[in-house]
Amino acid sequence: SAPFTWSLLNGSIPGLLFDSTTLVLSGTPTTAGTFSITVQARDAAGLTASRSISVVIAAPGLTITTDRQLPAVDLNGSYSETIAASGGAPPYTWSASVNPALPTGLQFDPNTGTISGVPSVPQLGGSHTFSVRDAANRTATKTLGLTISTSLTSR
Q: Taking Cα atoms as reference points, which of 149, 129, 148 lies closest to residue 139?
């Protein structure tokens, strides 16, 4: 019979707290995964009942975080820029194919997400689509602009 008091008997969810007055889990989860907690109710007569609960915290969505416009480079100038991703479930695997292909002289390393080389043809207003996959087999795709100019003043 009422009143009831509630408590968390065991378990925890990283970043979340259980409020025994409001019966609310609150906060910001810091770790993805499945977590088990056990809560208990005690009535005025001292009788108890408990229940185990599983809570699934999903990993944040996978995204490519690099700005839409990559840093420009001069024709025949050395270039190195790493495309960045976040969220999802690391490690990340980049697609070896960039669409359309990078200009002559530039290569994309799918192991590191790095574009590097010395471009030998100009490209004004060009764009290339990159894809990354995480350990949970989720994919993110983003189109990034790249300008290869014949001089610094033509950017």
A: 129
Beta-bridge partner residues of 117: 79, 106
Q: What is the DSSP letter of 31?
A: S
Give the residue among 99, 96, 101, 28 at the shortest CA–CA distance from 60.
Answer: 28
CA distance linking residue 100 with residue 116, whole number of Å: 16
DSSP-assigned beta bridge partners for residue 77:
none
Instruction: Tell me the pTM.
Output: 0.66
Structure tokens at 83: 């495309």
Could you read off the pLDDT tens digit of each residue along the chain, which spans 155 residues? 889 999 999 999 999 999 999 999 999 999 888 999 999 999 999 999 999 999 999 878 999 999 999 999 999 999 999 999 999 888 999 998 888 999 999 999 999 999 999 999 999 889 999 999 998 899 999 999 999 998 654 44
Distance CA 105, CA 86 (A): 28
Locate 155 and state its tokens.
């950017």
Q: How far is CA 85 from CA 31, 67, 114, 117, 139, in A?
A: 18, 11, 12, 21, 11
The tokens describing 154, both together, are: 């033509």
